[in-house]
Design brief:
246 residues; alpha/beta; Rossmann fold; 7-stranded mixed β-sheet; 39% helix; SAM-dependent methyltransferase; EC 2.1.1.-; methyltransferase
Length: 246
């Protein structure tokens, strides 16, 4: 896309999730330590975490599935740049249509594709080979925090579980929790800032562009919702869950 066509997408982000470089590398190293033979990333975007796991497991193969062709192309280009293109495949298909199992399944920020946490965890269990692992990341809500302006919070955020509720749901579904983590406040702020940087940086270069008013309105609306609405109450969990071999 030409810069004059409008802002880029996720160009300042390594991950479409609140995840720092150091945290991501620690997670990838831990997931690779289990030596999965194959990795399945459902709702992969550009599959950065999967690629980091494959970097650390030379014999493993990976498959990333998503329905965003632009992000899949970014993932394919990154795999080729790292010399992983012969071990990883990116496929344009809905997550709900995937039939494969894998030693390691990754699903970060994609529970909405299944209809929420409960449905996602239930469906994903079938994709984890017995004895394997699911790395699951998604949103949380802290009911003890009162937003400054609740009317600015997207309604579905209020339906998210807290951390204990999400872990309890995973256990009830049949998983064994191995590691329970959350994004730090700094990771959450960095994620929002990087997300908003696409529009803000573009506006700096093209303040008189015919589309600038719409970009500015969208950017300011999101920033207002974040800073005056859900900041401090919205969180993000990273769960490493095992499927018992029996």
């Amino acid at each position: 896309m030409n810069d004059l066509d409008g802002p880029g997408r996720y160009q300042y982000m390594s991950f479409n999730a609140p995840l720092s470089e150091a945290h991501a590398d620690a997670i990838a190293a831990r997931l690779a330590y289990a030596r999965p033979a194959d990795v399945l990333d459902i709702g992969c975007g550009w599959g950065e975490l999967m690629l980091r796991v494959l970097d650390r497991t030379p014999r493993a193969v990976g498959m990333g599935v998503d329905t965003d062709e632009e992000l899949l192309a970014r993932g394919s280009a990154a795999a080729a740049q790292r010399g992983l293109d012969e071990r990883v495949t990116f496929i344009n298909t809905p997550g709900v249509s995937v039939g494969q199992q894998a030693d390691l399944v990754i699903c970060v920020g994609a529970s909405h594709a299944f209809g929420g946490h409960a449905a996602a965890l239930t469906t994903l269990l079938q994709h984890v080979r017995p004895g394997g692992r699911l790395f699951y990341g998604d949103g949380l809500w802290d009911p003890t925090v009162t937003p400054k302006k609740p009317e600015l919070v997207w309604a579905d955020f209020f339906d998210l579980p807290d951390l204990a509720g999400l872990v309890d749901l995973a256990v009830a579904t049949g998983y064994l929790p191995l590691f329970t983590e959350t994004a730090s406040p700094d990771e959450l702020d960095d994620f929002e800032s990087r997300y908003l940087a696409d529009g803000a940086e573009w506006l700096l270069r093209h303040p008189g562009h015919p589309g600038a008013a719409n970009v500015r309105a969208g950017t300011e609306d999101h920033r207002r919702r974040w800073l005056h609405g859900y900041r401090g109450a919205f969180g993000f969990a990273y769960l490493t869950l095992g499927r018992p071999a029996a």
